[in-house]
Structure formats: structure tokens, C-alpha cells
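Example with several molecule types.
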Amino acid sequence: MTTAIARPILTRPGFGLRWRTLARVALRMMLHDKLKMIGTLSGVVFAVLLSNQQAGTFMGLLYKNVMFVENSDADIWIAPPGTEAFQPGKPIPESYVLQARVVDGVAWAEPLLYGASTITLPSGGSEAVTLVGTKAPALHGGPWNVVVGDPQALLRPDMMFFEHADREKFGGINLGSVRELGGKRVVASGFTWGLIPFGPSYAFGEYNLVQQILRTPADRISFGLVGVAEGRDHEAVARDIQRALPDTTVLTRSQYRRSIIRYILTRTAIGITFGTSALFGLVIGFVIVALSMFSAVLDNVREFGTLKAIGATNRDLARLLVVQAVVYALMGSLIGLAFVTFVAGKIRSPQLAVFLPVELLIGTTLVMVFMCIFASGLALLRLRKVEPGMVFR
Amino acid sequence: MSIGNHPAVEVKQLGKTYGSGATAFTALRDINMRVEPGEFIMLEGPSGSGKTTLLSILGCVLSPSAGQVKLFGEDVSGRKDSELPQLRLSYIGFVFQGHNLVASLTARENIALVLQLRGWSVQKAHKEAGLLLEQVGLPGKAESKPGDLSGGQRQRVAIARALAGGPPLILADEPTAALDAENGLKVTEILRQLAREQGRTVLVVTHDNRIYHLADRILHIEDGRMREAHHEQAPQ
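Resulting C-alpha cells for the full complex:
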């Protein structure tokens, strides 16, 4: 016998419970079909690997181009007019350094010589080096990252610091080894590590020695390095120097860094090349994720129909897909980033810098989350067309 | 929302036509029916007679082409598609022919899902799901997934899911089709007994004449038209 008359159910879940409910179903569905999950994850991992390998190499390349500006202790650079990248232009008068020293807010100003030369090998061959001449005793332009020797050794005649990673390349060079550099006999007095720009490695010598090797006119320099007095605004001092030296380009360290990066991105094909490869990685990953999620919906279309029949809305199913997409993105990013970081660590060398800053890793994860949510759109379009009435057929 | 003294289901001049023009197919025409709250009704008829279409319309998963459908006094015909899920949650519990449980969820979770969609907290929903499983005779199967259950057990879980949260109307589509005679009878008896105890109205679409005796009334549908059937009835 009937004991009570049932009533319509008017209660509905709140925002949190609705998400929690759909998230649980989403995760269970993912884990239920492990092969499909692995397939989808592999799409994300692949995208993370390829895009980060390309982006990391690109960042490494950028770092190589800005490392001198970042590591020298100059707050302001006086460069030849029209300078954008870190490469020697037409030499500027050494007197500019003297003029800079009297500008208010300048703590010190020193000349820097920078140019290409060749080292003659014992075997008779030669290798290119990028020569850097810094003024003693302060040696403001380097060397840095010293792994063998004392930079003060450069104050002695004919002493040079070379790149440790190029020791074999330079004919098995050791401390005390004698080499001919640009026709001048020099002695290896120390080694740096990792100072290989986008070109031949740096070799450091005292200003006068390098001047002889490069055969630079006595009153000409490549750059002027300026240190700003403590508490003074670097950009204001740079503006004052620029006013005093209108025939130069005066840049603070950060301005010069930005200028170099802008130059590489806009005036060379490097940015496009690496950017395209990274984009391909994302596109391929997107396609794999989109197809995998779409196929998962097709495989479970009856279950989705059932969910709709028992009261789940299209928005609920969208929530379910979003949860799956975000989980795929986070898991795939975690696996992919762990792998790419491991590989980058293994292949990293002074010649090949794969630079993976935290910003890139976080950015990659966010891009993957957006990519996966976007990729789930295809599956959602299919889900919207699922009729709950199909469960009666 | 209405319930009061209204019939559980009231259908007037209901029609459903699929397609248009030369390819139009009329699945239902001039259907009139009335089901009182607490009734256990069976709907029978040959394949293609319109049973499933009628069930879909009563279940608010399909809109009629003509006529009016009221559930407990509330007119549900002509509603927008976006309103139908809410109507289903408010009024209807479903038992499907193929059980249609979510394969990745346990028996308990399948039942709790419906409760959570009706606003029950996770903890309460899981507790209630356990009680419902006991009521359908599956106390030890709460953590089993559908793949680990027999056909009869799955259908009992589906019945528990249909009853979850207390929807006033249960629509069952061939619930015994995939079961042997013994299990089919048992499952229908469980459905009938629990519906009676809880005051639910049940409409069962079936071909299975072995369970006709459990019905309060049997409706016959053929070529899209309905008439009352006269089979031997179960004693009340």
C-alpha cells in the first residue's frame, strides 16, 4: 500500500558541490580507460617537450647574447652610435671615457676593447676567439666565471684567460701554455667556464695587450663601461652622459639587454625559426589532445547520454571536460617538464645552453592548460549533440 | 511546481511527428492518458508502436509536436531544451533497458551521482546510496563496478539509482529485457515494492508478459495510438 506521496525534488547542488561531483566523474572516466589516458597525456608531453626544447634553446641563445652585458659590472654602456646588438661597431674615442667620468653620478668609467682574433695552434691550424681587453687594475669587463687562476694574473705581461671548454680545441692548452694570438705571443694564466657567446669563446687580456693584438689605434675603444654612484638613478645618469656624448649610444644595463633581445627577435631569423618549431610542437600536441578527448567522448557517448538523461546539463558535461583537460595539462606538463629538465641538464654544455627559467616552466604549464581546454572544445561540440533520448534506443 | 491532488501523468491529444514533408513520420497521434500518483502501470505494444517515443516525452528528453503533457499538474510540454534537465531532476527517475550505469563508477558512486546532482552532499549521498543498495538486496556490492556485477545485479543498481533522492515518477524502459525469467520477475518485484512503499508512480515499458500480473493497469500502444489492454491483473 502507498505510505506516502512522493514530492518533486527541488534541491540542487551549489557551485562547489557541482564541480566536485563532475570532477570525480571526470577523473574516474579518465582512469577507467588507461590506454586513452596515456595517449592523451603523450600529446601533452610531446607538446611540452618540443616547445620547451625549442624555447629553452632559444632562451639559451638569448642568454649567450646578453651574458656579457649581464655579467660585466658596468651599470651603463657607452657604445658606438646606432648600437643595438652586442657586437663591436666603429671604435669610439677613448676621451669619451674621460668625459663620462666627470658627469655627476658617475663612480667610475673604464674603456673596453672587444674584437675578433685567431689563436694559432701547435699543430699549425688556427681557431677563432673573441678578444676582450679590460683595464687593470679593476678589470671591470671581466673575466668572470673563473674556474682556474686568479684574474689579477692578467696584470702581468702577456697573460690571457681562455675558455675552459675550448682547451682541447686550442690544442690542449694548460696553465702556462704559450700560444700565438693575432701574431702576439701570450701565456694562458687562467680559465673561465661557459663564456662562449653566439660565436667564438671569449679570451680575456689586459687592455694594453689586447690593444696590441687587435691593432686598435691607441685613442680608440670598443665600449666605455660606467659604474654609477650608489643611490643614483641609472637612467638619469645615462641621460646626462648621452647629453655629454651625443655621438654615442648610451644605454643602461637593462636597456642594452632589451635592445639586444629586440634586435635578435626582430632583425634576425632566430626568433621566427625557434618560434615556429615551438608552435609546431604546440599544434601537434593540440591535435593529439583534441582527437584523444574527442575519441574518448565517442567511446563513452552512451554514458554521456545517460548523464544527460539523469539530469546533467551541457554545462555540467563542459565542467567534466574542463576538469579532464586541466588534469591532462597538469600531468602532461609535470611529466614533460621533468623530462625536458632532465635532458637539458644532461646535454647542457658551454657550447649548447638550454636555458629553462622558472617563468618558462610556469608559462608552459599555463599554455598547456589553455591548449587542453581549447582542445576539449571539439569533444564538447560533440557532447552538446548527444541526445539524452538515445538511452531509450 | 505542482503536485497536490493532480494526476501523476496527464496527457492530452499528444502527437509526435519526426521529420517533415514527404519524409514525415508520425510516431504518436491523439494520445490521451492519465496515471494517478502511486500507480504501477505497464505500457506494452509491438516494436515501432511508439512506446519509446512516449516514454521519451514523458521523461522530458523529447518534446512533443502536439498536445499537452502534465507531470503532477505541471505542464512540461513546450519547454525549452535548457529547462528539461531540471524537470528530469525534479520529477523523474529512470531505469534503462541496458542498465546504463557509468562503467568507471562503483555501484555506490553511480547512485550517489544522481543524489549529488540533486544537491545532496557527497557524504550524505554515499550513505544514502549504501542504504538503497541494501534495499535492492545488494548490501555487499557497494564498491563493485558494473563490470563486476551480473545483469540482474546491475539492473538492481539501476533501480536504486532511479529511486535515489525520491523522484515521484519512475520510468522504466524494458527493465527485464536483458534478464532471465527469474531475475526479471525479481527485479520488477523489487521495483514495485519499493515504489509502493515510497509512494512513487511507475510506468514500465515492456514486452515481457511474465511480469504483466504485477501491473495495476496495462496500457497498449500500437501504430502510435493507445488503448487500455485487458490482461490478467495481479491482486491488489
